């Protein structure tokens, strides 16, 4: 992960089975997320806890913060579930999936994608009706101490009332199918969500290509080298 770049994280239950069984489980997960985020200096901008998976939008101060949070949180929560429900074995479907995002172009779309997830799933008609979501702070009237607003979110208005009105108005316009697909695909494939210049910047920083690779493509293809060259020589 790249410091100070927002990251969309998805972690799913094994074989898409439930990872939350009762109200207490959601509360335990969020409490440990708060503790781990504080310990590893990671900011949580928004979240939604679905029955069999979670979405998080995080920003870290260093390269390892988010991985450390997810490892600490994941292992703790598995032990909690196995002890509480007298079960054994894995809970999560392998390692979490993640996507670094160009904040200027995609951040607010990620907020909407995450907090509207229960609506798209047909579970509720409005995000306010789903209890395990950061919407209640970002767009509602509850303060969740876990949440640190991203600077771009803070720029939506001069005060909290203005920001929430702007954000709620934004939620009235559903994300396009193309945007939903783009966010879902880049995260599940652990690719970067951004334009060519942003992808080239992150690729150079991580010393590996992190954009979408067509079948049979080469990570050091001419297209990538051209993008990197343009980025390096931009005014």
UniProtKB/TrEMBL annotation:
Gene3D superfamilies membership: Transposase IS200-like
InterPro entries, alphabetized: Transposase_17, Transposase_17_sf
GO process annotations (BP): DNA transposition
Domain Transposase IS200-like residues, every copy: 2-117
GO molecular function, one term: transposase activity
Name by which UniProt lists this protein: Transposase
